[in-house]
Amino acid sequence: MKRSNSEKIIHPISPVFDENSEILILGSFPSVKSREIGFFYGHPQNRFWKVTSSVFGEKTPESIEEKKAFLLRNRIAVWDVIASCEIIGSSDASIKNVIANDLSVIIDKSKVKKIFVNGKTAEKMYIRYIKPVLGKECICLPSTSPANAAWSTDKLIGAWGEIKKTKGGK
After folding, report:
1. Model-level pTM?
2. pLDDT (tens digit per residue) in 135-161
3. Tell me, which fold does domain 7-165 have in CATH?
């Protein structure tokens, strides 16, 4: 694969969490659209916000402020495995020269009980770069990306229901 169009990018979005966060959801690296708008899961076809809000029985948040409030209200922290990498557009398959995020930024200042990853690329990167340092397992959930066409939104909501079991020890 020719990588002449790959570009070294530093993750431009700060993690969302507070001291009450119990659930950590990690993606791999923000898409071009997410990098443009400056917030997680910014592509309109990504089903993350629809799926997670459905799991918690809430209206799908629209603005960045609503999304942050939704996450914190439901004790969810969100970030990505990768701090910087070379990538072509939004292609997970093109990712190389990875530097991982330091998750202690969240783990040390919250009540995170479980770590979930959004899709197989995030899982692979977590196992390779984060688990050896952190020593914690992750739970892989099916990707909410539009590229994961095999999973309907309803099927994703069912699988992602796992995150609700963590909140408040439920």
Report:
1. 0.93
2. 999 999 999 999 899 999 999 999 999
3. Uracil-DNA Glycosylase, subunit E (3.40.470)
